[in-house]
Design goal:
Elements: H1 15-22, H2 28-39, H3 49-56, H4 60-69, H5 75-84, H6 105-125, H7 129-141, E1 144-149, H8 152-166, E2 171-174, H9 177-185, E3 191-196, H10 203-214, E4 218-223, H11 229-232, E5 236-239, H12 255-276, H13 278-301
Parallel strand pairs: 1-2, 1-3, 3-4, 4-5
Helix pairs in contact: 2-4, 3-4, 6-12, 7-12, 8-12, 9-10
Amino acid sequence: MTEKPERTELPQGNLLERIQERYGSLRKSERIVADFLRLNAGTRLDSSITELGRALGVSEATISRVSRALGYEGYPDLKLSVAEGTRSKSEYANIPLEIDGNDSLVRTSGKLATLLIQALEGTQRMLDAHRLEQAVEALHKARRIVFVGVGGGAAICDEAAHLFIKAGFDATSYRDGYTQTIISANLSAGDVMVGISHTGTTVTVADAMLLARENGATTIAITSDASSAVANAGTVCLTTWGASQHVVPLYGDFLEGRLSQLFLIDLLYVGLLFRAGETTAQNLRRTGAALEDHYRHVARSK
């Protein structure tokens, strides 16, 4: 007797839950469709399958496969689900909608891991090679590198300055508007200011970047909104992945946004190391030796 093939259970639940469950099994082109659906959950989707495929740069067959993979009969059924919206909003501000307080911690960890991976992949897809090269070249030629951010963005700025200092670059980080204004007023051609703001609406960062740019410095914006004030203040803008859920000012945003920012900082750092060559390699060796001597001395003094 021939055994029947094992039946694959179709995902259940709302659109976001279905995407969460099946995302890992989707192909690269199919994930583009899934990311679009996730970002537009709860809004009316008027595009035909042909129009959507053209907008996303994928085939109609890809969209149909994603529809079926998510448990829908086809694209029309999927469109209805997109318009229906998502489950009720969490009582916690800016917690991703996929995270459910009723889940076990192990299931929650799986969801978080998937969300973080999606954020990095989304940021990677949005990278502009020319802008990236511009940013690295400006940093390579810079006499001084200044990182500015507020709140969670400031923490990324501190980490960035720490990385760059160890490689011998003149890098500093400032997190309050008063000091950011003072620094911007004293920058000039040959200096670089990097402004970090997930929403792009941080007024002090945008103002500091504009002032630095007016004084001749190169400004690099790292934000999820390419049309924001911070983005417009940048000589160069590097865009990170952005979540579909509205981010409430002062409540902080998702960890995915911070991870995407850190990813770009590390990318700029690695690119700069390779561009500078042996000089930075020597600086890192010198830094390592100095730290080793420091901690050996501390150990002896105990």
